[in-house]
Design brief:
Blueprint: H1 12-21, E1 26-29, H2 36-43, E2 47-52, H3 55-64, H4 74-85, H5 93-100, H6 107-120, H7 129-141, E3 177-181, H8 184-187, E4 194-199, H9 208-211, H10 213-220, E5 226-227, E6 232-233, H11 248-261, E7 264-272, H12 279-288, E8 293-302, H13 305-309, E9 311-312, E10 318-319, E11 326-335, H14 337-347, E12 353-355
Parallel strand pairs: 1-2, 1-4, 2-3, 4-7
Antiparallel strand pairs: 5-6, 7-11, 8-11, 8-12, 9-10
Helix pairs in contact: 1-2, 1-14, 3-7, 5-6, 6-7
Amino acid sequence: MLKYLGSKRRLVPALAAAATATGARTAADLFTGTTRVAQAFKKTGMRVVAGDSASYSQVLAECFIATDSEAIDASLLAEEIARLNQLPGAAGYVTEVFCQKSQFFQPQNGEKIDAIRDVIEDYRGTWIFPLLLTSLLQAADRVDSTTGLQMAYLKEWAPRSYRPLDLRIPDLLPGPGASLPGDVTRTVATIGPIDLAYLDPPYNQHRYESNYHIWETLVRWDAPEHYGRACKRVDLRESSGRSPFNHKKTFAPALGQLIEGLQADVVMLSYNDESWVSAQDLTRMLRDNGLREVQAIGFESTRYIGSRIGIHNPQGQKVGSVRRTKNIEWLFIAGDRNSVRAATAATESFGGQVLEIAK
């Protein structure tokens, strides 16, 4: 699984237990990111729809959620992965931009990424394309030189960056599912009635496509113009393409509209205590959209390593101090009383603490 800020890795067991406790058989994960939560739901036997606006997330959803491991030619997949691993490196966009103009990858790995990605493009439009591309994304993630985010690279090469690039077969799951590409505010109307919806919207102004611009470029494979030391995509700097969920003024109205458009019996919403909307307002928003029983649960969490390292100036000198090393991850569960109570009880063994929200 890719290193990913906001992947809910520590909370996945609690989220899966809560979802299962509701008795849900169908679910939608509408800000799916790496699909970690959607995969956990699928493993329980639910039929899952996973959606996101990021191109790389759409590929991951096609690989892990929409693909049925029992309905593909596994031997062909293994053969193609082996063939890609044997390709000689050939310097291209990745080598120039992410190895020479910046230091996200060692040059020898950049050349391999370039050569392999060129060949994968020949499979676009086929069932195997998202599987091969996911394998490349995961392989590149294992040899990068970052703390996880791609807004910067490490001053000194990470030890893992010296390892050779090695593609592996993705851990596919049995069962049907679907990928829902595009802006969730427009795609929500196509989902139809479902048992459970899980929402994990952005917590701030930073777009995930920008935080993980290398994955976005590897998927689009469009050799974009770039800017800055991190060589980020120029098109991601434009405010016109930014989601309403990345603006403080438009976040709450957009979330309210999204919840209103859902046809879900139960809604589970992740947020935290460092973000734009209070727990009281989120509770009110859920109730105003017909979900009368709402329970808020808190999980203490260690903040992302970058926030604990602190801020450094261009000379590498630390400036300022770290304000907080912990935060509280919120999980709101809304729906009928029995489902909410069952889901809430299921989180207790994972450290969930019921929060008292003032009305």
